[in-house]
Each structure stands twice: as structure tokens, then as C-alpha cells.
Design goal:
Elements (H helix, E strand, L loop, with lengths): L17 E14 L2 E8 L2 E7 L4 H8 L6 E10 L12 E12 L16 H6 L1 H4 L3 H23 L3 E2 L17 E3 L7 E3 L5 H9 L4 E9 L11 E10 L3 H20 L8 E4 H8 L13 E2 L10 H5 L2 E7 L7 H12 L9 E5 L5 E3 L7 H10 L7 E7 L1 H18 L10 E5 L4 E4 L4 E4 L14 H4 L8 E6 L2 E8 L4 H10 L4 H14 L7 E7 H9 L29 H6 L10
Parallel strand pairs: 3-5, 6-9, 11-17
Antiparallel strand pairs: 1-2, 1-4, 2-3, 4-5, 7-8, 9-10, 10-22, 12-13, 13-16, 14-15, 14-16, 17-20, 18-19, 20-21, 21-22
The structure holds aspartic acid (ASP).
The site of aspartic acid has 9 residues, from strand 21 and strand 22.
Amino acid sequence: MYRTHNCGELRNENIGQTVVLSGWVQKIRNLGGMTFVDIRDRYGISQLVFDDKNQNLCDKARELGREYVIKIQGKVIERSNKNSKMPTGDIEIIVEELTVLNKSEIPPFTIEENTDGGDELRMKYRYLDLRRDSVKKNLILRHKMAHEVRNYLDENNFIEIETPILIKSTPEGARDFVVPSRMNKGEFYALPQSPQVFKQLLMISGFDRYYQIVKCFRDEDLRADRQPEFTQIDCEMSFAEQEDILNMFEGLAKHLFKNIKGVDFNDEFLRMTWADAMKYYGSDKPDLRFEMKFVDLSEIVKGNNFKIFDEAEYVGAICAESCASYSRKQLDALTDFVRRPQVGAKGLVYVKYNEDGTFKSSVDKFYSQEDLKKWADAFSAKPGDLLLILSGNRNETLTSLGQLRLEMANRLNLINNNKFAPLWVVDFPLFEWNEEAKRYTAMHHPFTSPKEEDIDMLDTNPGDVRANAYDLVINGVEIGGGSIRIHDNDVQQKMFKLLGFSKEAADSQFGFLMNAFKYGAPPHGGAAFGLDRWVALFSGLESIRDVIAFPKNNAGRDVMIDSPSIISDEQLKELNLKVTKEPS
Ligand code: ASP
């Protein structure tokens, strides 16, 4: 028998019992005649004592090394030197028998909270990294969340159905990963960017409520919240309106908040239109843990011969409370921030509302104290506050101001990490103008339905058509989103046309779906939530890599298994493929 107990469960009530434990050697200390060994497994750590009265056993213990796998038998006794920081800290085990189950080489980094291993090294030996509590606990949380998701959805009649991985291009707007087909030479499968079309087909099949915790693949440039393969909680419902769907998944979010974080949300989640989210926060995923709403100054700043404002489509500002004392250096740093290419503003105008009630600004030449007072009043600003103003093209300026808002919140420590601020962003535009391609693309995906009352504008003013689409946002993170789908063949055809698909292209890519729509498609809609992001959010982590057992690095590489890698000439031949450029 390998164990009667695990390494984390022995307590006072076990004192006097003979137990068998198996696990890894965490630490060895020789103190006087005694040798102490910490034994670790997934559940915790227990202290073993080797008494020098048993010389043979003691000698054996001294030969142990870090990460050896051992089995011991011994008696649980009360510890004289209790350790209140360890759950097993009241007891120790006097070892009577020791078996080395397997030796270990010296690990490349210490398997402890504050490891000496850098990121690359830890990823190369990820299986060792996963022995560390801080990493392990994220995966355990992930498991619990997935389990609670299944509980909730099962209680609500959802059926988990697997959909294929080798498919053809799906319409989420990213680049596909492709897999060559050996049996169909010259042809390729695409990996699903999401199971979107399959879940819609399942609604046509009558499954009514579907879900799947599923891997999705998107070949995009990587960031902290992106991996080439990631996991979605993918859901779809028939005979459901937007309201039904928001309620159902708000229920899921509340279930997770309650069962995982112990937080009760009694009130309904806030709902904000996409237009308001952009207007007041410059983001379609506003972080509402703090306020700092934008004020549109476009009208009141015009007419004073300050060309930049006079010519701007939009002039907007935020008010940073108690920041009027900012130094030249601090203001310069903010100007540098807004000028970063990722932020994209040309410059920053500030107005200091001094404690003595006077104003000092970078545009004093053009505006009187009374003018500046009007701006401050638009915010109900107080002496001591600082207005930060950006101007230019409306959409770009709103986005830049949104980034400045987040930057200021970080600088001013306004973000309470123990707070959760969930909201639904609704009424997204149906289309997005793609400047490069000079055409509209679907903001969500081509199966998203336009709002009934906006359908008339499809031909005249597509940019203004709103969609039955929604996102769940928590603390500035887009946790998921979805839409009510088009279930009418004519509207779907029209949508493809507006998106620039020729009839042939639409047929070849989505003909199967169009066909299915001819056989009684129920009204349906759904949503998908990013499991990785949700777990990261609940763990208080920035990067989703930390909640994935075997993630890829920023270059899309798995440095542990060394992938991607080249394949043999035989494999290439079998697949009828030729590599023309040597991999670098
Ligand atoms: N397939 C969509 C996505 O991956 C979600 C949905 O519309 O249900 O974003």
C-alpha cells in the first residue's frame, strides 16, 4: 500500500496512529541527532522525523535528495515545536520504515513559492513548475470553475455535445490554423476558431440547449490574454431572445461568483450600450471598479482661435482628482504615455485647478480663467483637481482617452483588486469599417442578427445598424460575448453580400449552413465565455498562461516539447507538401 493518508491531512486527532505516506522530498534538515524531512504531495506537506536511535534509518534519510519520491511508514506524534502556518503543523511523523520509490536529479530550480527559476526555465520544465503551490492552485481553481459551470448548465437543461476539431474555416475573423490532409492531397482542414456553426446546426437539430467546454484555435499575435489555443465555455439556446440569454448567463456568472469566490450579487448586472461605453469610458470593455467618466468638451472649447481644438472632431477629458500638484516631469510623462503608438494621441492638454481657485493650463494663451472654470464646472471639479484633455478624430481620441483613464487609475491606485464590477455591454454595431480593405466586416461574426428596428438602414447606412450582440465584461476584461443569430435565409444572404462575399464564396464557405436553414431553423442565440480569462480574473492574475497547464510562449512556442518543429521528408511526401523556405 502506498498510502493511508495524503501529505496534507494529518491533524491532532491522528496522533498515535501508524500511517503510510508517499510523496516528494521537499526539504531535509539535520539537527543534532535528528533528521527532519518535509514530504509533499498535491494535498500538502507533512514533517517526518528520523530519530538517531535508529541509526540505519537515519543514514538512509541523510542520503535523500530534493524531489526524491519516497514512501514512509511511521507514527503520528504531537510536535513540540508547532508551526501554525502549516495545516499539518501540530503533528509530525516518527518514521519507522523508509522506501525510496524513485530518485531525482537536482531540479533546475527550487520547487518553492519564491523559486529561483526564470520564466523560460520554468516553462521548459513546466511539469516541475506545476509542483509549485502557486501554479498548482490555479489549475485546481480552473477545475472547480469548470465543474461549477457544468453543474449550473446541467441544472438548466444544457447538454454537452462535442463538435469536431478538423473542420473548415469558421468566421471569427482571425487567421486559421490549418492541417494538411493526407487522404485528400492538396486539401486542408482548418481548426475551429470556435464551434459557432456547429452549435447553430445543433439548434436546427432540435437540441435546444447546448454547451461545450472546448478548445478554440486562432492564429493571432499573442498577448497576455491570448494563446493560440484557448478554452471557451460555448453555449447556444433555441427559442430565446436576448433577454433570456442575458438572464441565463448572468445566472452562470452569479453562480460562479457565489460558489467560487463566495460573493453574492443580488442586484442585476449593470447594462450599458456600446455607444455609452465608448462615449464615457473609451472602451467596449470598461473597467467600472472606478469612475473617472469622460466629459465631452467639444462644444465649449471652440471659438478661441486654438486651432487644434477648433478643428478637432472631438475634444474630451478626464478629471484626475487631487492631481493639480503634478510636476512638469509628471505631466511630461503623461504626454509621453499618450504619444505612444499603442495609445496614439498627438499631445495632451492639461488644466490645473489650483488650490487657490486659479487655473493653470498648457493653453493659457487661448483661454481665460473664466473659460477654464467652465471646463472644470463641466466635471464639477474641485480646487486641487487636474483635467487631462485629448482631441482629434472622435473614435481614435475616445480610445486614447480610455487608455489614459486606465493609466491614471493605476498611477493613483484607484483600482480595488478585491472588487468585482460586472456589466453587460449591449447593442454593439453590426459592422465595423475596415480602413485597409475599404469595406465593412462583421463586428461579432456574420451570423449575428441586426436589431429589428435598424434593418431598414442595412442598405442605406450599414455603419449605424446595431446588432443583437452583447459582451459580459468584468473589471475591464471581456469575459465573453454572443448574439442572437440570423435564422432567416434571406437576411443571412443579405448579410454575406454586405460583408463582400460573392454568392459563390458564401456558398462554398457556408453553403451547408444556408442549406440547413431551409429545414426549419428555430430562432436561436448564444454566447461563449473565455474559461482561461475567467480563471485568471478569479485568481487575480494578468496572464492566462498562468492558468493553463502547458501554455505557449509569446512566440507561440511550447519550449518544453519544442514545438512547432519541422517534420520528416517522409511525412512531407505523404502529405504532398514541399517546404520552400528553411525554417529560421
Ligand atoms: N462564437 C462566438 C465567439 O467565439 C461566440 C458566440 O457568438 O456565441 O466569440
